[in-house]
Amino acid sequence: MAEAKLQVSDEIAISIENMNKWYGTFHVLRDIDLTVNRGERIVICGPSGSGKSTLIRCINALEEHQQGRIEVDGTVLSSDIKNIDKIRSEVGMCFQHFNLFPHLSILENCTLAPIWVRKTPKKEAEELAMYFLEKVKIPEQADKYPGQLSGGQQQRVAIARSLCMQPRIMLFDEPTSALDPEMIKEVLDTMIELAEEGMTMLCVTHEMGFARQVANRVIFMDQGQIVEQNEPEAFFNNPQSERTQLFLSQILGH
Amino acid sequence: MSDTNTTPVAFVRDAMLPEQAAPITAAGPLAWIKKNLFDGWFNSILTIVAIYFIYLIVSGAFPWFYNGVWTTDSLAECREILQGKTGGCFSVLTERWPQLLFGFKYPSEEYWRPTIAFFALFVAVAPVLFNKLPRKLLIVTAIFPFAAFWLIWGGSILVPIMVAVGLIVGYVVFTRLVYQSSAMGMIGGLVATVAVWMLSGYITDPLSGFLALEPVPSRDMGGFMLNFILGVTCVSLSLPLGILLALGRQSDMLIIKWICVVFIEFIRGVPLITLLFVANVVLGYFLPPGTNFDLILRVIIMITMFSAAYIAEVVRGGLAALPKGQAEAAGSLGLDYAQSMRLIILPQALKISIPGIVNVAVGLFKDTVLVSVISMFDLVGMIRGPILASTEWNGVYWELWLAAVLFFFPICYGISQYSQWLERQLATGHR
Fold it and tell me: In chain B, where are the structural domains located?
């Protein structure tokens, strides 16, 4: 893969300063500071319950943070609904369980948001949807319903659905964790292709091969804190903290 | 030993076997009878006993229908004709047919009006029930309630028109103001509607003869027509109200949530009969003296509130059954609350709730006969009151109650069949 293609600009896409979040009295995220430049591909890993999903869900306000400041693409995230809707239409998200809309066909899944949020004319939205469905290599499934597709196909549709909003940032919340092993590759290939085109990406995943190949930064989280972050080579070959070493030995040790 | 070595263990089939017809004992009518009716001695006995009971019922009922009398003027005449034979006296149905349909006070020369309204109803509901029909038919649906009101109650056509104008003005004001805030939109719309209604009194009063049909007051409504009016109106009002209550109960806004919870729990905790008595008697004490608050309107409000509370709980069940990810996915795509509810959440939640909603709707339709308890002459009220109490027909129970069954059953069964068809239509291979 050509490293030169994966240019990172100096422009800041996401900046998180001193962010804290509690679930009731439980302190899930502690003093998170994170700056993501445009074009960066970040992989976030860590044991379950470490707050990594919560972190990326705060970025598009699916979770509310109680302290600190999040700025996405120049818009400050506050409780103002207009800001939230603006950020959400610029930030795409893929979920572990795909969350396709089962009552709508694949094509309708993809055209829904452009039509209702962007006010794109229906025909144009359908052309756009077909373009992205072709990109994730399932244009022939456009008229089927999500329930008729395999898991890997559903996740690729979910990626296409997000792309139809032409987001500048993509969040992936364990996109391959609910998939059978032989389907993981097709989803990862789609994500790699996306990365090569310069999309800003934050991925919560345990696919370390993907991290080595695509990421330009790997973040390790534990107990609601960022414990270590580094470039992938250094991160995997020479982890600094004891906690990271233990985690890596557990997931790479078999 | 040597010949075992000559046949190799590997096997390759060189010709595929053709399909053969199943033996007569495995398929066909005889096999079906054997499998379903005479499968072992115990099932055979059960089958024979069941056939015997069916025979008893049919042989008992058949002469009752076959010898039935359809043309006499009283039960006494029926008995004269039958002379002790078993036979139904169906003349009560032919002679009192208009009363069963329209009650005993609705002017007979105006029967054509509710009849037209009845048939227009099918045109009006068709585009709502069947998605494939042209959407332009929805205009008929929108006009129907006002036209039906005019036809059934009579009076000047200006009254329903002004009601419609009020609603349209309110809606326009709502859409203008809703961009500023939804509360302002609602209040503004409500004020505008009420203002138009109040002002319209100055138009409708002097012009009360304009395109007027002979007015028929609510207390003259009766028969199955009354059940039908109540059933159709209350079902179509309680569905949207129930959905709003269900959404309100899930709302993050505490005051709205608690209003909905209290309403639902209170209404569900009270028998419908009690609410109807409240509508009939008690409400009068609270209203200023001289207010003429239409009795049917009061009953409609009570039944609607009652079934809306039930539908709200059914819909809440549907909402709770949806994975949280659906709302999150809708949100992450930038859809706002109203859009995600209308396009994503409600279509799925309502689909899950169809059996429950239909259950409530069928129950509501049958419960409309309870108005006979507050001395309204619906179908049951007519049978129990004017018809059975008359000297001619005193004692004709079987025939009349059978007729009541035949009025209600096809409609309720039709609703249930429609809902099952709808569920099959909406199935998209999910789960």
Answer: 29-62, 155-213, 220-425
With contacts defined as CB-CB under 8 Å, which chain A residues touch B325? 95, 97, 99
CA distances from B376 to B280, B295, B382 (A): 10, 9, 9
Domain co-membership, A158 together with A109: yes
For residue B428, give the nearest of A62, A97, A145 by CB distance. Answer: A145
User: What stretches in chain B show pLDDT beneath 70?
Assistant: 1-8, 179-182, 208, 284, 287-292, 429-431
Q: How far is B327 from chain A (nearest CA, A)?
A: 9
Mean pLDDT of chain A: 87
Residue A92 lies in a domain: no
At B232 the pLDDT is 92
Query: What's the token pair of residue B2?
Result: 């040597």
- CATH, domain range B220-425: 1.10.3720.10
Q: Does B356 touch chain A (CB under 8 A)?
A: no
Cβ A64 vs Cβ A80: under 8 Å? no
Give the whole-number percent of chain A exceeding pLDDT 90.
26
Q: To the nearest 5 percent, what fractions of chain A are helix, strand and coil?
A: 40, 25, 35
For the question of whether the overall pTM of this predicted structure is more than 0.90, the answer is no
pLDDT reported for residue A3: 47
**Of B403, B398, B382, nearest in space to B89 by CA:** B398
Interface check for B431 against chain A (CB to CB < 8 A): the answer is yes
Minimum-distance CB partner of A117 among B325, B334, B429: B334
In whole angstroms, what is the distance from residue B80 CA to residue B362 CA? 41
Residues A17 and A77 in one domain: yes
- Asked whether residue A23 is domain-assigned, the answer is yes
Q: What is the pLDDT of residues A112-144, one digit of tens each?
A: 999 988 888 999 999 999 999 998 888 898 899
A124 with A246, same domain: the answer is: no
Q: Which of B334, B335, B428 sits opposite A103 (nearest CB)?
A: B428
Asked, for residue A5, whether it belongs to a domain, the answer is: no
CATH of the domain at A230: 3.40.50.300
Write the DSSP string, B336-365. Answer: -HHHIIIIIIHHHHHHHHHHHHHHHHHHHH
**B307-322 confidence digits (pLDDT tens):** 999 999 999 999 999 9
Residue B75 distance to chain A (closest CA, Å)? 59
Domain identity same for A20 and A81: yes
Tens of pLDDT, residue by residue over A170-207, are 999 998 888 888 888 888 988 988 888 888 999 999 88
Residue A89 is nearest to which of B328, B334, B344, comparing CB atoms? B334
Note whether A183 and A82 are same-domain residues. yes
Q: Could you say which of B333, B339, B428 has the minimum Cβ distance to residue A102? A: B428
Is B329–A101 a contact, with Cβ atoms under 8 angstroms apart? yes
Which residues, in sequence order, are bridge partners of residue A170?
A92, A201
Number of domains in chain A: 2
Contact B335 A95 (CB under 8 A): no
Contact assessment for residue B74 and residue B392, using Cβ atoms and an 8 Å cutoff = yes
Residue A1, pLDDT > 50, answer no
Global ipTM? 0.88
* B429 contact residues in A (CB cutoff 8 A): 145, 147-148
- What's the token pair of residue B37? 């009716």
Minimal C-alpha gap between A5 and chain B (Å): 28
Question: Which chain B residues are closer than 8 Å to A100 by Cβ?
Answer: 329
Residue A1 counted as domain residue: no
Q: What backbone torsions phi and psi does residue A44 show, to the nearest 5 degrees?
A: -110, 125
Looking at the DSSP bridge assignments, the partners of residue A69 are A17
Please give the residue range of the domain that contains residue A197: 12-86+178-210+221-253
> Is B252 within 8 Å of chain A by CB?
no
User: Is B351 within 8 Å of chain A by CB?
Assistant: yes
